[in-house]
Amino acid sequence: MEFFVFVSACIMVFAGAIGVVTRSHPVHAALSLVLTLFGVAVMFVAQAAHFLAAVQVIVYAGAIVVLFLFVIMLLGVDRVEDLEMEPIASQRPLALVASLGLVGILVAGIVSAREALTARGGGLAPTVVEDPDANIRELARSVFSDHVFAFELTSVLLVVAVVGTVVMTRRRTGDGAGR
Predict the structure, then answer these.
(1) Which CA distances in Å does 110 have to 31, 71, 93, 102, 114?
(2) pTM, two decimal places
(3) pLDDT over 50 (residue 173)
């Protein structure tokens, strides 16, 4: 039974991932992403990580994909753009330089952490948990006390992304009143 659930979840994840990459319509690609996220949630349930499965469905499949769909609809995917005209002339060379820089950082990180990638750890010592909610409490304490800045920064980035999308989609009228 566990093998069947695992194979089914893998098929869901793989089919959704292929759909995200191959679909030409952005809404269909976002719905394929939902399939992938649900497959990952099924894998969490199979591993008895019910809290992570709920977070996966609520946060990612719920909130983040809805945000993606909101941005897609707000941008108006039905408009056709002229791909021959480039708004920024140096856009392609700058993208090439940025991508080479990212690849360089990735290679430097892999080279500097080479020993950590090949070293074998001793594993974790088994712990006896008297309180079944101890992990959730520890996670909440960690997120809302130790890492509260990163948590709030993520929320600000999401708000900035939505506001930026709204600003980008505003259409100017001929007399400038739409500014």
Answers:
(1) 34, 35, 26, 12, 6
(2) 0.52
(3) no
- The CATH number of 1-77 is 1.20.120.1200
> Residues 39, 18, 71, CA angle at the centre, nearest 5°?
80
Phi and psi torsions of 53, nearest 5°: -65, -45
As given in the structure block, the two tokens for residue 86 are: 């480039």
In angstroms, how far is the first alpha carbon of the chain from the final one?
60
Place of tokens 């946060």: 59
b/e per residue 124-144 (b: at least 16 CB within 10 A): eeeeeeeeeeeeeeeeeeeee
Query: CB–CB of 38/54 below 8 Å?
Result: no
